[in-house]
Specification:
Blueprint lengths: L1 H54 L7 E2 L9 E2 L2 H20 L7 H5 L1 H23 L5 H8 L7 H21 L2 E3 L5 E3 L1 H18 L9 H30 L19
Helix pairs in contact: 1-2, 1-4, 4-6, 6-7, 6-8, 7-8
Length: 264
């Protein structure tokens, strides 16, 4: 009788210890997940601020880094460059805070929580690189900038490219025209280059066929692909209108001066 009681007691203690270990593992998982979510929010917020800072650049007033027109990237002024450096330090710190959580199986376990932030940061990196170097970073280059200890999926990279097209469209529209020494309004070099880039991306992505109901990332891809098409249309129409009707504009006219909100 006493033996059976002892066995029952041992079994109860074993089960209790086992479930305690389960509870500790679950608590650790929730803590890690919360840290990743917080870091994701911080990275996203800082990345958006980098993009906003880059959108403040006025191409006509910016210093050109090279004389070669296809590669005539701009040099950021000290104020904007300083702001971006500070924001990048915040992003580096946020990634560092969850470095251990995103190793091994954790890279995939919390991929959904960090994916949006990585896409936003990729958007900021691609946008800055294009403005400064006239170059679209490859997946390998993006992985190197973010760090090989963090997982950058090809899906995040592609979605980041599609997000960047919207920012390029806004920059092209904002910096659509140049005014020559003879007061002639013409399409700016940057608007032409962005228009050509967006056309090239549209051609490249148009060959893809994705089942939008098969996976959440596929649905997001289809949605962002439509954004690319809309961005190309907007830039093409703006460039076309200014090219065709630019000679009809009165001397000294700049977009925004008329009663039609600057539409040509």
């Amino acid at each position: 009788m006493s033996v059976s009681v002892s066995v029952a007691t041992i079994d109860r203690e074993t089960v209790t210890a086992l479930f305690s270990s389960f509870g500790a593992a679950l608590d650790a998982h929730h803590d890690a997940r919360d840290r990743v979510i917080k870091a994701s929010r911080d990275i996203t917020a800082a990345s958006k601020k980098i993009i906003f800072a880059l959108q403040r650049v006025k191409y006509a007033d910016a210093e050109i880094q090279r004389d070669d027109p296809p590669k005539a990237g701009i040099k950021l002024d000290s104020k904007i460059a300083g702001d971006i450096c500070g924001l990048e330090r915040k992003i580096t710190d946020a990634f560092g805070a969850v470095k251990d959580d995103l190793q091994g199986a954790g890279a995939w376990r919390y991929q959904r929580q960090i994916s949006g932030a990585i896409q936003e940061y990729i958007e900021a990196l691609l946008f800055r690189e294009y403005l400064m170097e006239r170059w679209i970073l490859s997946h390998e280059e993006v992985q190197k900038l973010i760090g090989h200890e963090f997982l950058v999926t090809h899906s995040d990279y592609i979605l980041g490219i599609l997000d960047t097209t919207g920012e390029l469209m806004r920059f092209a529209i904002t910096n659509l025209y140049d005014v020559t020494a003879s007061s002639v309004v013409q399409v700016s070099a940057i608007a032409k280059q962005i228009c050509q880039l967006l056309r090239t991306l549209r051609i490249g992505f148009s060959g893809l066929r994705v089942n939008s109901s098969s996976h959440s990332s596929s649905t997001e891809f289809v949605k962002k692909l439509n954004t690319l098409y809309n961005s190309v249309d907007k830039v093409e129409k703006a460039v076309y209108s200014l090219t065709v009707r630019g000679s009809e504009l009165p001397e000294g006219w700049i977009p925004g001066d008329d009663d039609d909100n600057g539409r040509i």
